[in-house]
Write a structure and sequence with these properties.
Nucleotidyltransferase, domain 5; six-stranded antiparallel beta sheet; six-stranded mixed beta sheet; 13 helices; 24 strands; globular
C-alpha cells in the first residue's frame, strides 16, 4: 500500500486528504474558529453533582457544561488497585461521586470527546499526554505497550521502558510507532512529556478555574504524529509558511518524516490533483454509487448511522444469488472506506441485501472485517443480527464530516422533507380563521412562497373565497420568492 498526504492550508481552514493507492481514504478538516477540544486540559469547576447518575457537570469555559462520570474520575485509582492486587478490582469499588466532588470545587480535567449535537464535552480526570512514541500517564504508575505490537515483544519492550522511565513517577504506554525506537528516541520523548506535564501543573496553580492548561497539537502536527507511517511516500503542503513550521516540528519530534515533507508550488490547487473536492461533495450526499451499478444510501442520525445496500441496475451475474453476492462484496469495501471518509462513529447498522447462502454471508463478513482492519479508529463488528442486519460500532471522538461542514436545512429544519404546498394552504386557512376570532383587522394579507400562492389563485381559490365570506374580511395574496415552501406570514392590515 502506498500512501500520500495532501495538505491544503488557508488562514481560516486546514484540510488534509489521506490518499491510499490513488483513492481518498480519509478527510480531516480543522477551522481556526472551530478547532476540536479533544486532548485539551482544563482547570474545571464543578457546577453540579448528580448522585443518581454518578456523574457531575463541569464548567470548563464552554457554552455548555461538560460531563464527567465517576468511572472517569476514578480510573487512576482503579488502575493502581489493579496493579497492586491483580484480580481484586471488584473488591475495591470506587467511592460514590458525591463523596469525592462538591459544587464549586476546582478539578483538573481533560476532554475525551468534543461536544456533539446537544451533548456537552465528555471529560476524564486522568490526564494523558500523547507524544510521538509514548503516551504519558502522570497520575498513574502503569507501564504498558500497545496491543497492536506482537505479544512476544511486549514484555521485553515493557521492561526496557521501565528502565528508561526511572523513578521520577508517572506511567507510560508505548505506541505502535515506538516499537523500533532507540533508547535515545524514547528518552527524548519521556523528557518532552514530563516537561509538558510540569508546565500543566504550574499553570493549574497560577490560573483561575475554567482556564485552558494545555492544548492538543493542531491538525497538521497530529497528522505527522498519528497518520504518517512507513507506507507514507510524501506529505505535500501548499503553504510555504506551514511547510516550514511542519518541517521544524518534524525535525524536533519526528526526524524520520522530515524528508517526506514537500512544498507544493503547482499552479493548480493541490486538491484538484485528485479531484478531492468532488470526493468531499460525494461524501456529503446520501447516495453512493457502486461500480457494479448498485448503490448505498447512508443516513446519519444522532443515535446511529444506517447504511442500506441496493442492487440498482446491476444484473451482470449469471443468477440473482450471484448478483446479490457481488453487490454485497463491493458494498463491504465501499462502506469501510465511507466510514473513514465521512468519519462516522457510534453505532452503525448495515442492511446488506438478503443472502440465502451462509457461505456468501460469511464471505461478505470476512471482507468487511478485512477492510475495517485498515482503519486507524477502533471498530467492533458484532456480526449479523436475527433480522439479517450487520451491527458494528466505530469509536467516535470528533464530529463527522457532514456535521463539520453542513447545518440543518433552513427550509425543512433537518427533517429531510417539507409539507406540500396544499398542506401549507390549509394551514394558512386555519390560521386566518384562528386570528379572525381574536382580532378585527381591515384586511388579512397572506405572504407565502410562489407555489403556495399559485394554489390559492387556482385550485384553492373557492376555499379562500369561502373563508373570506365567512369572516367578512378581504384576504389578499403576496408572493415572496425568497420564502421556503413551509414558511408564511399573515399580516393584519
Amino acid at each position: 500500500m502506498s500512501q500520500e498526504i495532501l495538505i491544503n492550508w488557508s488562514p481560516q481552514e486546514t484540510r488534509v486528504a489521506v490518499v491510499e493507492n490513488g483513492a481518498v481514504q480519509e478527510l480531516h478538516v480543522e477551522r481556526s474558529l472551530e478547532r476540536g477540544l479533544v486532548g485539551n486540559v482544563y482547570l474545571g469547576k464543578v457546577v453540579r453533582v448528580l448522585p443518581g447518575m454518578q456523574s457531575a457537570f463541569i464548567d470548563i469555559g464552554l457554552d455548555r457544561t461538560a460531563f464527567l462520570h465517576v468511572a472517569d474520575l476514578m480510573s487512576s485509582i482503579n488502575s493502581r488497585h489493579a496493579e497492586a492486587e491483580p484480580g481484586k478490582l471488584d473488591a475495591a469499588p470506587p467511592l460514590p461521586i458525591e463523596k469525592q466532588l462538591f459544587e464549586g470545587r476546582a478539578i483538573m480535567v481533560q476532554v475525551l470527546k468534543d461536544p456533539i449535537g446537544t451533548k456537552g464535552a465528555r471529560l476524564t480526570a486522568q490526564v494523558s499526554i500523547a507524544g510521538r512514541l509514548l503516551v504519558f500517564l502522570p497520575q498513574d504508575s502503569h507501564i504498558g505497550v500497545s496491543q497492536k505490537i506482537p505479544p512476544k515483544q511486549r514484555e521485553d519492550l515493557r521492561q526496557r521502558l521501565q528502565v528508561l522511565a526511572g523513578e521520577a513517577g508517572g506511567g507510560f504506554i508505548l505506541r505502535t510507532n515506538g516499537e523500533e525506537a532507540s533508547d535515545a528516541e524514547l528518552s527524548e520523548d519521556i523528557a518532552y512529556l514530563r516537561k509538558t506535564w510540569a508546565r500543566i501543573k504550574d499553570a493549574s496553580l497560577r490560573l483561575p478555574p475554567t482556564s485552558v492548561l494545555h492544548q492538543d497539537l493542531n491538525l497538521l502536527q497530529r497528522v505527522l504524529r498519528d497518520v504518517v507511517s512507513d507506507a507514507t511516500q510524501s506529505i505535500r503542503v501548499d503553504s510555504r509558511d506551514q511547510c516550514v513550521k511542519l518541517q521544524s516540528f518534524a525535525a524536533e519530534f519526528m526526524p524520520a518524516t522530515l524528508k517526506k515533507i514537500q512544498l507544493y508550488a503547482g499552479e493548480r490547487p493541490i486538491f484538484d490533483l485528485l479531484n478531492i473536492d468532488e470526493e468531499i461533495a460525494r461524501a456529503l450526499g446520501r447516495r453512493v454509487e457502486l461500480k457494479s451499478g448498485g448503490y448505498l444510501i447512508i443516513d446519519q442520525t444522532e443515535a446511529l448511522t444506517t447504511v442500506d445496500v441496493n442492487t440498482g441496475g446491476f444484473v451482470g451475474a449469471r443468477n440473482f444469488d450471484e448478483t446479490i453476492f457481488k453487490t454485497n462484496l463491493e458494498a463491504a469495501q465501499t462502506i469501510a472506506r465511507q466510514l473513514r471518509l465521512r468519519n462516522l462513529g457510534g453505532i452503525v447498522i448495515v442492511d446488506f441485501i438478503d443472502m440465502l447462502r451462509d457461505n456468501h454471508r460469511d464471505a461478505v463478513l470476512v471482507e468487511f472485517k478485512k477492510q475495517l482492519a485498515r482503519d486507524r479508529i477502533k471498530t467492533t463488528v458484532n456480526g449479523f443480527s436475527a433480522l439479517g442486519l450487520l451491527e458494528m460500532t466505530r469509536k467516535r471522538t470528533r464530529e463527522s464530516l457532514s456535521h463539520q461542514l453542513c447545518e440543518p436545512c433552513s427550509a425543512c429544519g433537518g427533517k429531510g422533507v417539507v409539507k406540500t404546498a396544499r398542506s401549507v394552504t390549509y394551514d394558512i386557512l386555519r390560521e386566518i380563521l384562528r386570528e379572525a376570532r381574536q382580532f378585527n383587522p381591515r384586511e388579512f394579507r397572506v405572504v407565502a412562497a410562489p407555489q403556495v400562492i399559485e394554489l390559492f389563485l387556482d385550485e384553492e381559490s373557492q376555499h379562500l373565497a369561502g373563508l373570506s365570506a365567512f369572516i367578512g374580511k378581504p384576504i389578499s395574496l403576496q408572493s415572496e420568492v425568497a420564502m421556503a415552501q413551509e414558511h408564511y406570514d399573515i399580516v393584519l392590515l
